[in-house]
């Protein structure tokens, strides 16, 4: 039996009461929905993207609000900090202390294995094998052997490194003058970072000496940081804590020069390629730029310093008694060749890149919380009125 099709009049009567999509929301608010009207909740596909955007915006706004509240509390406690004032350098020093101390302490298990393998390359087959053996012999605390001097030492180093960098960058910029500072900015970054690291390594060296000895003696020669310092000075005097200062300068100063100069350059490159000016971006976006630039700078540092790091490890592991430094270096290079100088590069890139990225993220987040601008990018300008004209002065 054929089913009769509805005529035009029936279709018109059936859908005449259905509101159009343009005024559906307003009509449904004024009158109850008829049984012929489509239920919007059953057809939510078209609103899924809008719902996701709305939720994302709410989360973003909430995060920004929390950051602003925390920043306001910090600024209320510290007061307004003028650029390049003693309070500014104190803030940068504290930010560097947090950035380096926390990150280096977090990777103590990796540093422990690296130091022990430099003494005996056959001690462990790999990271997990090493951590497993240490935990079975010494417990979970064993894989964090040396965390105390690491925290003390790299906190001190970070304080001098970041605070000193900000000071020397301004100091050398004033000596050079605005035009020369802008023209030779990369040289300025290199000089400032080298000067800061010179003093930072002096602060680090005593704790580094204790850390290495704790990590390379089984059981550790001391149970605490200052107990280790007392043990060393009792046997060797104060000079025993600074025996490794020259090699430390040789490794760290070139590394830090690359770290800061490449970071500043990458930050400028990022903002140059983004629409608008740095000042137009929010605090969250600027700290994200700091993390990305720091990670990329860490990759550059890892690549540049990796051959030297491999050679130092090989020298510590295979150098024969009485063998001259030059003869040992030539022998090792003959054994491993140029390609051998790049062994383990991928792992080191990941470790150093992450470490450096997190350091810049912590450092610039701390500065932002105190109402200070993030590092890198165009220099901040102070504007003042003079004789009816606006005079811009570089900060």
From TrEMBL:
Signal peptide (from-to): none
Location in the cell: Mitochondrion inner membrane
UniProt superkingdom: Eukaryota
SUPFAM superfamilies: Mitochondrial carrier
Keyword rRNA processing among record annotations: no
Keywords for this protein: Membrane, Mitochondrion, Mitochondrion inner membrane, Repeat, Transmembrane, Transmembrane helix, Transport
Annotated Solcar repeat ranges: 87-171, 184-269, 285-369
Pfam families xref list: Mito_carr
Membrane topology per record: Multi-pass membrane protein
Major subcellular location class: mitochondrion
InterPro entries the record matches: MCP_dom_sf, MCP_transmembrane, SLC25A3/Pic2/Mir1-like
Family stated for the protein in its record: Belongs to the mitochondrial carrier (TC 2.A.29) family.
Xref: PANTHER family: SOLUTE CARRIER FAMILY 25 (MITOCHONDRIAL CARRIER PHOSPHATE CARRIER), MEMBER 3, LIKE-RELATED-RELATED, SOLUTE CARRIER FAMILY 25 MEMBER 3
Official protein name in the record: Mitochondrial carrier domain-containing protein
């Amino acid at each position: 039996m054929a089913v009769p099709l509805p005529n035009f009049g029936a279709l018109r009567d059936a859908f005449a009461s259905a509101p159009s999509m343009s005024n559906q929301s307003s009509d449904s608010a004024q009158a109850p929905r008829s049984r012929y009207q489509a239920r919007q909740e059953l057809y939510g596909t078209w609103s899924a993207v809008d719902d996701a955007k709305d939720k994302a915006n709410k989360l973003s706004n909430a995060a920004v609000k929390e950051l602003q509240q925390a920043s306001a509390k910090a600024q209320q406690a510290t007061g307004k900090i003028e650029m390049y004032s003693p309070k500014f350098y104190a803030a940068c020093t504290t930010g560097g202390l947090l950035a380096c101390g926390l990150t280096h302490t977090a990777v103590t298990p990796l540093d422990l294995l690296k130091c022990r393998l430099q003494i005996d390359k056959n001690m462990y087959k790999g990271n997990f094998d090493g951590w497993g053996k240490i935990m079975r012999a010494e417990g979970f605390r064993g894989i964090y052997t040396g965390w105390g001097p690491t925290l003390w030492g790299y906190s001190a180093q970070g304080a001098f490194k970041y605070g000193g960098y900000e000071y020397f960058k301004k100091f050398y910029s004033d000596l050079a003058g605005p035009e020369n500072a802008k023209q030779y900015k990369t040289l300025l970054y290199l000089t400032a970072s080298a000067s800061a690291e010179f003093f930072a390594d002096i602060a680090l060296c005593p704790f580094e000496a204790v850390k290495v000895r704790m990590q390379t003696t089984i059981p550790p020669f001391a149970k605490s940081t200052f107990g280790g310092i007392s043990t060393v000075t009792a046997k060797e005097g104060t000079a025993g804590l600074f025996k490794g200062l020259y090699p430390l300068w040789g490794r760290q100063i070139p590394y830090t020069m690359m770290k800061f100069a490449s970071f500043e350059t990458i930050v400028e490159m990022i903002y140059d390629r983004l629409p608008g000016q740095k000042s137009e971006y929010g605090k969250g976006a600027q700290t994200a730029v700091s993390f990305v630039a720091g990670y990329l700078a860490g990759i550059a540092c890892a690549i540049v310093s990796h051959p030297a790091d491999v050679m130092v490890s090989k020298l510590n592991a295979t150098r024969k008694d009485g063998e001259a430094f030059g003869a040992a270096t030539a022998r090792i290079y003959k054994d491993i060749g140029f390609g051998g100088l790049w062994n383990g590069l991928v792992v080191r890139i990941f470790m150093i890149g992450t470490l450096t990225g997190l350091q810049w993220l912590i450092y610039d987040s701390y500065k932002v919380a105190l109402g200070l601008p993030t590092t890198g990018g165009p220099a901040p300008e102070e504007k003042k009125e003079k004789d009816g004209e606006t005079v811009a002065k570089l900060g």
